[in-house]
Give the backbone structure.
Amino acid sequence: MNTIFIADLKVETRIGVYDWEQRLKQPLLLNLEIEPPSAAAFASDSFADALDYAAVVARVKGFAADHPHKLLERFAAALADLVCEEFGARWVSVSVAKPAPIAGVRQIGVSVERGERSA
C-alpha cells in the first residue's frame, strides 16, 4: 500500500462543548495519512496522476475554519469523510488533537479511519 501523509498541520477553529470554546478560536493539530485513489503517481512521476497535497491542505484549512461540530470526535469523522468523498481516497486516517487542553496534559485527541487499506 502507498500512502501520503500530512503531519502536524496546525489549524485555528472554534470547537468545544462549552460556550467560551465556541467564542474563541483554538489551535488544533491534525495528522492525516491518505491512500490515494490510484498508485499511478508512484510509478509515472506525473503530477496528473498525483493527489494534490496543496489542494488537500487548503480544503482541510477551509473545513476547519467553518464547521458546525462541537466534539473532536465528530470533527475528525467529518474530515475523514470529506477526504474520501472529495479527493477519492481509498483509505484515510485522521488524528485531531487539542494542544494543552488540561493542565499537565500535552495533547488530547482522537483518531478515525475511513475506507479499506489495500494489501
The chain has a mean pLDDT of 94.
